[in-house]
């Protein structure tokens, strides 16, 4: 990756972030009509349900935004993907007439991953309102929720492809009027070349700033590893309750769960204690979403790097959600695409959250741990399951050792291992100590105190 010597200051990041919003999404587009194009709509019952669920997800996205409302929605059959036009002629005409009749609608959200700049313009010309796709809507939600340097940079990076296609489109327009390929006085560059160069420079600058933050995170990670705290990554679909669960497990009052999609956009780490008194670090991650635009995943995948360096992955599922099974499939698919070590993928601990919303909940798959992060139900059991999994994955040993109280054995153990329980036999001058420690630490202990196994 290009390092460059471009140093980016905090104020510059804010400036970059606040510059022209390429999605063009603003407060004025709050009344939305959603169109979900579906290739096989109406052909099979199964497909029908999928399309309806995807529509529900689109509604969820729009209503996540403050003051935005869905005025109306429609699922329309469409031509096969790859065809130049999204809708057949008849459908398009009906749709256009319907939109024109709804004078209070300010934007149409076409629920596809990306519309080309050209079709976006064609649709806007035909309908006379702003046209949004999934990329622009999700990006706008991210924009509204971004608070840290890293999230802002990642969003600015995710906006570059939009700026680029918009530029190509504007220049194609200009060219029709004979302006785009003209040289700018004395520079030897055309306007198109100048603007493309500026975009390239902007992209490099953002990438190198992100790279710097990434190095800082590596450093923090290696410090954590040096201190030997095991890490547990909490992953799951957006809004499944990851942040709430971490708050409940750690008592970290600073965490703010919200009933909102993509409330968490940064990876944060929170310390908690397991029943054996071992300290673990819980990593809160960005939520997943089916059909999250690819380029967005790319921009945010660096934040998910911590997941592959953890000792355990906990997959939180909102079992009260009608789509919980599909959500699980999606999360596992994304995890597999992140190049996470096989042993971590094979040892995922699944948590069934929000059981307070289902009367008498029984997990259908036996490996799920039922909990309610909100009421605290099942959390004690979950902590034990996490503990067992951590001991297994870190290769730690649980031992009961007999120590002599007139030596420094006990204080050594307090420093170098997790002491769970001490029972002193004062008369004998010994204590029986239950500890969790690494095999390496046990080796050192035996050598130092000349203990035979
Ligand atoms: N009833 C109930 N609600 C819950 C439970 N856990 C979380 N919630 C609610 O679900 C909503 C989302 O919770 P968060 O913890 O922000 O979810 P998240 O997975 O971190 O969401 P993102 O960061 O947006 O991906 C909040 O309104 C929580 O109060 C639970 O066990 N029961
Ligand atoms: Mg969260």
Automatic annotation (TrEMBL):
PROSITE patterns (alphabetical): G_HFLX (PS51705)
InterPro entries: G_HFLX_dom, GTP-bd, GTP-bd_M, GTPase_HflX, GTPase_HflX_N, GTPase_HflX_N_sf, P-loop_NTPase
GO CC annotation terms, alphabetical: cytoplasm
Assigned keywords, A-Z: GTP-binding, Magnesium, Metal-binding, Nucleotide-binding
Cofactor: Mg(2+)
CDD domains: HflX
Binding-site residues for Mg(2+), renumbered to this chain: 243, 264
Residue sites binding GTP per the record: 236-243, 262-266, 284-287, 353-356, 372-374
MF terms (GO), sorted A to Z: GTP binding; metal ion binding; ribosome binding
Protein name in UniProt: Putative GTP-binding protein 6
Protein source organism: Synaphobranchus kaupii (Kaup's arrowtooth eel)
